[in-house]
Amino acid sequence: MAARLHIKGLPRGFDEDDLLDLCEPYGFVEDVQVIYDDYNGSGTVRGIVDYPDRDDAKSAADDLDGYELDDQPLRVTVSSRKGAVSAFE
Fold first, then answer.
1. Residues 46-83, buried b or exposed e (16+ Cβ, 10 A)?
2. CB of 59 closer than 8 Å to CB of 26
3. What structural domains does the chain harbor?
4. CB atoms within 10 A of CB 18
5. Is the CB of residue 14 less than 8 Å from the CB of residue 47?
6. pTM for the model
7. What is the percent of the chain with per-residue pLDDT over 90, rounded to a whole number?
8. Residues with Cβ < 8 Å from 86, sequence gap 6 or more?
């Protein structure tokens, strides 16, 4: 079953290649997105990472939640991927 990581607290200047490098050691990554939220002036950076395997996503979340980048801890959550199709569901 596919899963999605939501990562908050990424440093400014972080891009998709950086996010892929951070998450790929835990398993095959289907897609990554880095989102800059400058709408309200907060300047927050978050990432979305799609894994086809929920166990890989869970392992990544367990290791990366609280991991510090640029002296800032990451906050990582896992959710089911909307629209994901599995032969076993």
1. bbbbbbbebebbebbbeebeeeeeeeeebebebeebee
2. yes
3. 3-79 (3.30.70.330)
4. 16
5. yes
6. 0.84
7. 71
8. 1, 2
